[in-house]
Amino acid sequence: MWILSRYADIVSAGQDWQTYSSASGNLMTELPGRAGATLGSSDPPKHDRLRGLIQHAFMKRHLLDLEEPIRDIAKQVFGQLKGVKEFDFKDVSSQFTVKVLMAALGLPMGDEAIVPEQEVRDNAVMMVQSDARTRAKGPEHIAAYNWMQEYASKVIAMRKAEPRNDLISNFALAEIDGDRLDDREVLLTTTTLIMAGVESLGGFLMMFAYNLATFDEARRAVVANPDLLPDAIEESLRFNTSAQRFRRRLMKDVTIHGQTMKEGDFVCLAYGSGNRDERQYPNPDVYDISRKPRGHLGFGGGVHACLGTAIARLAVKIAFDEFHKIVPNYRRTADQLPWMPSSTFRSPLVLNLTVQSP
Ligand code: HEM
Known about the structure:
With about 350 residues, this protein is of the alpha+beta class. It is about 50% helix and about 10% strand. It is built from 12 helices and 11 strands. The strands form 4 sheets. It has a 4-stranded mixed sheet with strand order 1-9-6-2, covered by helices on one side. Protoporphyrin IX containing FE binds near residues 39, 200, 308 and 311.
C-alpha cells in the first residue's frame, strides 16, 4: 500500500480516476461484495450513472424542506441537556445523527419504525470499524453489514409498495432516459448511504465538539456569534476530519517523487494529511477559525467528492446552534480519549464534557 500525503498529489489522484480506480473498493478495509457495486466503489461511467440517479433523487427532496425538521430534532435532542452538569456528547450526537438521517433519507420513524433507532446507529458504526489489532474486518463487522443490508431491503420494499417524496422512494424508482437501477444496485447503494451518512455525520459532530471543547477561544467566538459556525466547521473539516483516508487501485504504473508504484498496487489518499500540508495551508497545525480553508479535503475531492456536503453542513450548523443555546460553556473531562478502531474513519468513542457556568 502506497500513501499519498501531499495536498497536490491527492488532488491530482482524485481527479484521475482512469489511473486511480475506486472499483476495487474505496474503504481502507473493504466490505465483502461492495467493490464495484456502489457509487463510492465504482468508476465512471457506472459511477456517474449512479451519482446522477442519486443526485436526481436528492434534488426532488429539497434541502430547504429539511431545515425545519432538523431544527426540531436539534431542539428536542439538545433540550435534554437542560440542567445537566456532566454528560457524554456521544449520547446526544448519536441520537441527533440517526434522527436527521432517517428524516433525510426517508427511513421509517416513529409509529412506522421497523427497528429501534439506536440499532440503526449501532450497526452503521460497527460496519465501518475494523479490528484494532489485525486491521481486518471481524465477524461482528460483517454481521453489522449484513444486518444493514437486510434492514435496507425491507425499507426499499416498503417504499416501492407505497412511494413518498423521500430519498429512498425517489432513488429506488429514479429513472434518467429510461435507465433505472437494478435491485442489487439499489440495495448496496442504500446500505452505503446509511453507513456513509450515519458514520460520517456522527463522527464529524464528535470531532467538532472535541475541537470546541479543546480550543476555548474558538468556542467563545462561535457562541458569541453563531454566524461564525460555518467557518469553524470548515476549519474542523481541514484540521482533523473524521473521514481521514480512502483507497484507490492503480490501473497503470505511476512514477512520483522518484518512486514507481506498480499497476495493481493500492494507494491511500491521506486526506487528513493533505489538509495539514504546509505547502497549501500556512501554520497547518493551528486550529484557526478565521482561516477559511478553501479547497480542503475534508469531503474528499475529484469525481468521488462527498455527495452529502450540503446536508452535513446544514445539520452540523443547526446542531451546534441549538446545543450552544443550552450549553454555551463546556470542557473535556479527560486528556486521553478512546478512539474508534477504524482504518478509514477517526473520532472519539466517548467525549465526556463538564458544563461550566456561562
Ligand atoms: C461531515 C460529514 C461528512 C464527511 C466528513 C464526509 C466525507 C466524505 C469523503 C471524504 C468522501 C470521499 C470518499 C472517497 O474519496 O472515496 C465522501 C464520499 C461520499 N459521501 Fe460523505 N461525508 C460526510 C457526510 C455525508 C452524508 C451525511 C452523506 C449522505 C447522506 C454522505 C454520502 C457520501 C457518498 C454517497 C459518497 C460517495 C460519493 C462518490 O463516490 O461519488 N456523506 N464523504
